[in-house]
UniProtKB/TrEMBL annotation:
The keyword rRNA-binding does not apply. Keywords: Membrane, Transmembrane, Transmembrane helix. The chain crosses the membrane at residues 56-77, 93-114, 181-202, 211-230, 236-257, 292-312, 333-353, 383-402, 407-428, 448-468, 496-515. InterPro entries: DUF6541. It comes from the Bacteria. The keyword Transport does not apply. This is Uncharacterized protein.
């Protein structure tokens, strides 16, 4: 188990760290940006390996990371400024402190939610996720162009973001842990390490204020909306990975737009690494890169406004001190035009990536006022709106407005608010046009609020702490007999006041955040998802007991016939025995579809036994007629019912009403 955690950290850090080091990043930033770059290496190497036929393994992303690093060694990206290096060496411990705090709080949350490490999320989408990990291991192919074939039946494969599953497969291959354990290890590492690192990197890109770095890490697990929400609803593991690295990609874009001289990053570093991180975000989940585009657009707009204002100043003052050269003016115009073109391309990209959706039978309609309040409180539907969150977001916006800093963060949050209001309050045609790229799933959009909300709060709180520290230092040195003594008093006061102020703010933020009713609701829902109950819609305790005995009865290589809507399809991910279906939403192969519909006619229909023998499908999991979401699929899977009564099969193991049957109508 410990080895699995160590290997997971290495998979998410080493390939990206090689690239970041070759790009001349320094110290903390190398580690902070590494997961986003590593995910890019995982996704891209899996795709390339699938194309050329190289079996999937840990060496593929490592090799690709080393290759990219070797190329970047010869690319003139520029080096960090000496001033920035000084700040970096003196202040990195604050960033590391934020990581430690965030990791500890995240670990407490995740352990409480998951419970036993062999537990699994008993939710709709986890049937696919566990099976996809097993599918990669069995086939040696983790390409996003291949993994979709698991559910494609006899048709062509489709693209599915498989970076999460590829990493989990490596953990199983190397350490021998089960698929659920590997999934839980990866979840914990992403939440406790990748997510706070990513937030701290964005905070460092925004400001050299060390307080904000600390607060960004500390607040990483202070809101139920992420990651707890996506552990309950879905479960959406690829989205969790994509959102966890999204702030890092956004931070690199900020560096690319304006550089961060006080922390030593150059624009060229931001451009190169930002492109790679955006690719990693896309390979984590396409929703994440769409979210990145939406959230980065206000930052790009702010840069365009700054460039235009600069050109206007030059025009009004043609000969100021340090006047711009013609080349500088041309470069400024070109940069503004490029960014305007990129902004103008977003609506076309939006239209090109839209896909057909179906209006739900029951359309949720929330009053606009409540929807806006939920955006400020980072509260999903059916969760209590946190007064603390509302106050923290509004107060942070006011602080940044008064200080006139990072105003684009406010606009980015407003964009998220617009998406949410559109998705729960507008008529179907409008909401589908606006939020269809997120499958009109408000949980996916709600989970994005902390990506901007946490840096917003952290930056504003950092500003207030700095103002308080400087103000107290000035007052303490007011009566000093000399300037030298006044400077010493100010320095000493700041050294005492700054840590004290930081501690007070940390406590002041965390206590109400974790005491909020919405946090308890999120923790309760996440813990519920990782347990089995008699009324569970996916897997009940009796059904789990039967699945755990499948390997004792079913020979390796045989196929177990299942109705996936009863939860039986999860057998493949949990045990390694092949099943006739791998997900509830699937396209079956023609033989499997025929058997699922007609197996009970084995004595009358010779084609049934022919398909049974051809596919070694001699076993059936009979989990009754209760299906997930109250659905009924008797037309598709009715042939798997009543097999004992018709004499087609006999029970070989049972627990409660759940049974494992062996087909006797078709002798081998």
């Amino acid at each position: 188990m410990v080895f699995a955690f160590v290997l997971c950290v290495l998979c998410l850090v080493v390939p990206g760290a090689l690239i970041a080091s070759a790009a001349r990043m320094r110290a903390f930033d190398v580690v902070a940006v590494a997961p986003a770059l590593s995910v890019a290496c995982v996704g891209l190497s899996a795709m390339l390996g699938g194309v050329v036929g190289v079996p999937w393994g840990w060496w593929l992303p490592l090799g690709l990371g080393a290759l990219i690093a070797l190329i970047l060694v010869f690319v003139p990206l520029g080096r960090s400024r000496r001033r920035g290096q000084h700040v970096r060496r003196g202040g990195d411990w604050v960033a590391w402190g934020g990581l430690v705090f965030g990791a500890a709080l995240g670990a407490i949350q995740m352990v409480a939610a998951i419970g036993n490490m062999s537990s699994f999320s008993n939710t709709f989408d986890n049937t696919f996720h566990l099976n996809a990990v097993r599918f990669i291991i069995d086939n040696g192919n983790a390409s996003p162009l291949f993994v979709g074939s698991m559910n494609a039946g006899d048709g062509p494969s489709f693209y599915y973001p498989s970076a999460w599953h590829a990493i989990a497969a490596v953990l199983v291959q190397v350490t021998g842990v089960s698929v659920p354990v590997a999934t839980n290890v990866l979840s914990i590492v992403v939440v406790c390490m990748v997510w706070p690192l990513s937030l701290i990197l964005l905070a460092r890109a925004l400001s050299s204020n060390r307080f904000s770095w600390l607060f960004a890490g500390v607040l990483s697990s202070a809101f139920a909306v992420f990651p707890l929400l996506l552990l309950r609803h879905g479960v959406l593991y690829p989205n969790i990975l994509g959102i966890a690295i999204l702030p890092a990609a956004l931070g690199l874009i900020v560096w690319a737009l304006r550089g961060t001289p006080l922390t030593g990053a150059t624009r060229s570093q931001g451009m190169v690494l930002g492109a790679l991180a955006a690719g990693g975000t896309a390979l984590g989940h396409p929703n994440a890169v769409l979210s990145l585009i939406v959230l980065a657009a206000p930052a790009v707009l702010a840069r365009v406004i700054w460039l235009v204002a600069r050109l206007i100043r030059w025009k009004r003052q043609p000969h100021p001190a340090g006047a711009a050269t013609p080349a500088t003016r041309t470069g400024t115009v070109a940069e503004a035009v490029i960014f305007l073109v990129l902004l103008g391309a977003i609506p076309f990209l939006w239209g090109a990536m839209r896909f057909d959706t179906v209006e739900p039978y029951r359309l949720i309609q929330v009053p606009v006022g409540e929807a806006i309040l939920r955006t400020l409180g980072m509260a999903p539907l059916r969760y209590t709106i946190s007064t603390f969150s509302v106050i923290a977001i509004v107060a942070s916006m006011l602080v940044l407005l008064i200080r006139r800093k990072h105003l684009w963060l406010i606009l980015s949050y407003a964009v998220l608010a617009f998406l949410y209001v559109a998705g729960v309050s507008m008529p179907w045609e409008a909401r589908d046009a606006i939020t269809g790229l997120w499958y009109n799933d408000m949980y996916r959009i709600t989970a994005l609020f902390p990506v901007i909300g946490i840096p917003l709060i952290a930056t504003a709180a950092g500003e207030l702490c700095s103002l308080l520290s400087r103000s107290l230092a000035r007052r303490a040195s007011r009566d000093a007999p000399s300037d030298v003594e006044a400077r010493d008093i100010r320095r000493l006061t700041r050294r005492v006041v700054s840590p004290a102020a930081a501690c007070v703010v940390v406590v002041g933020l965390l206590v109400p955040a974790f005491a909020a009713t919405s946090m308890r609701e999120g923790e309760r829902d996440a813990a519920w998802a990782f347990n089995t109950y008699d009324d569970s819609q996916i897997v009940t305790p009796d059904e789990l007991a039967v699945m755990q005995h499948v390997t004792d009865v079913v020979p390796e290589g045989d196929t177990v016939m299942v109705n996936p809507w009863t939860g039986a399809a999860m057998t493949y991910g949990l045990t390694g025995r092949k099943t006739s279906s791998y997900h509830l939403l699937e396209t079956q192969t023609a033989p499997m579809a025929y058997l699922a519909k007609n197996l009970d006619f084995a004595y009358e229909d010779p084609l049934v036994c022919q398909y049974v023998r051809e596919n070694d499908a001699y076993y059936v999991l009979d989990f009754g007629v209760t299906e997930a979401l109250g659905e009924s699929h008797r037309d598709e899977y009715g042939g798997l019912l009543g097999l004992e009564e018709s004499g087609v099969a006999q029970t070989v193991y049972s627990a409660g009403d759940a049974k494992l049957l062996r087909i006797v109508a078709c002798p081998q």
